[in-house]
């Protein structure tokens, strides 16, 4: 398995693409009693890579997972395995027979997963948000997320002007913000509800998304949460997308509930016209 990605940004003080100091061998796809799987890259990537987990578990006795701390609760509920927020904690409590970075799972159980949902939100919190949405307005409930990425991850290609999002709002739906980060002012500009405490916590965000009928989003972590949960999700997709989204077509192999609305060149107005018509 190529480990070339570990040479990228190797001097940066981040966990995303760092080799872990396991004394056991790298997994080669053969049966082992205990397999340690560790996260890499970003939150959305870790969710996407976990779409391979069900196939990987058919080839091992037990699995333990190191993932981003914000994903621990959601992953433990969804997969029924012990998850750790750091490799130090995983290694302290376990003696795995092999380890595998999440991004390498597809090398052994690929080429692509089946697209079926694999995440499970907290059912009591889902009902809480369903009631909160009913108190907010009539359905259908459409969740919006309009910002993703950084300069390093090409936010200039991903994000459309707020004016394009405003063009959707006269469709007779109750719109709600699921935009993570500091999004209160943008949500106020859109005049839609934004519950900051619900978007700061990934597990709460998963419950809120599950309570909605549809998510419309740019390319960001929200897509992976919705897709992993099996919630219908439409993606405003740039003409220069990240590898996860491919270069053509409306569907993705990772998530059967996700549909792409693609730019032609750099044309956002047509994308939002198509989304509005579909709404």
Describe the structure.
With 279 residues, the chain is α/β, with parallel strands linked by helices. Helices cover 35% and strands 16% of the residues. It has 13 helices and 9 strands. The strands form 2 sheets. Strands 6-5-7-8-9 form a 5-stranded parallel beta sheet. A 4-stranded parallel beta sheet has the order 3-2-1-4. Strand 7 (214-218), helix 12 and strand 8 form a beta-alpha-beta unit. The protein is globular, with a radius of gyration of 19 Å.
Order of helices and strands: EHHEHEHEHHEHHEHHHEHEEH
- DSSP strand content: 15-25%
Question: Distance N terminus to C terminus?
Answer: 43 Å
Strand order of the largest sheet: 6-5-7-8-9
Strand tally, please? 9
Which residues sit in consecutive blocks of at least 5 with pLDDT less than 50? none
**Dominant shape:** globular
- Helix-residue proportion: 25-40%
Biggest sheet layout: 5 strands, parallel
Task: Summarize model confidence as the mean pLDDT.
Answer: 90
| Radius of gyration (Å) | 19 Å
Q: What attributes does this structure have?
A:
279 residues, five-stranded parallel beta sheet, 13 helices, alpha/beta, single chain, four-stranded parallel beta sheet
Topology:
Layout: E1 32-38, H1 43-49, H2 53-57, E2 60-66, H3 72-79, E3 83-84, H4 87-93, E4 98-101, H5 105-109, H6 123-136, E5 141-145, H7 155-158, H8 162-166, E6 174-177, H9 184-190, H10 196-200, H11 202-211, E7 214-218, H12 221-229, E8 233-237, E9 258-262, H13 268-278
Parallel strand pairs: 1-2, 1-4, 2-3, 5-6, 5-7, 7-8, 8-9
Helix pairs in contact: 1-12, 6-11
């Amino acid at each position: 398995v190529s480990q070339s990605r570990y040479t990228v940004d190797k001097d940066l003080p981040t966990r995303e693409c760092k080799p872990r100091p396991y004394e056991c061998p790298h997994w080669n796809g053969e049966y082992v009693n205990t397999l340690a799987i560790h996260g890499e890259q970003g939150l959305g990537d870790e969710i996407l890579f976990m779409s391979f987990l069900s196939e990987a578990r058919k080839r091992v006795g037990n699995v333990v997972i190191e993932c981003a701390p914000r994903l621990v609760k959601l992953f433990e509920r969804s997969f029924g395995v012990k998850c750790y927020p750091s490799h130090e904690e995983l290694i302290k409590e376990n003696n795995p027979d092999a380890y595998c970075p999440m991004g390498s799972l597809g090398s052994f159980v690929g080429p692509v997963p089946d697209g079926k949902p694999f995440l499970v939100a907290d059912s009591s919190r889902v009902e809480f948000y369903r009631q909160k949405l009913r108190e907010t307005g009539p359905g259908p409930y459409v969740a919006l997320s309009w910002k993703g990425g950084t300069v390093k991850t090409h936010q200039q290609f991903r994000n459309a002007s707020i004016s394009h999002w405003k063009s959707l709002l006269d469709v007779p739906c109750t719109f709600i913000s699921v935009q993570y980060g500091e999004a209160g002012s943008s949500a106020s500009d859109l005049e839609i509800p934004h519950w900051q405490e619900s978007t700061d916590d990934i597990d709460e965000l998963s419950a809120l998304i599950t309570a909605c009928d549809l998510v419309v989003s740019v390319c960001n972590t929200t897509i992976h949460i919705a897709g992993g949960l099996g919630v219908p999700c439409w993606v405003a997709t740039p003409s220069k997308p990240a590898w996860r989204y491919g270069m053509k077509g409306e569907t993705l192999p990772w998530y059967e509930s996700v549909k792409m609305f693609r730019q032609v060149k750099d044309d956002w107005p047509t994308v939002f016209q198509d989304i509005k018509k579909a709404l």
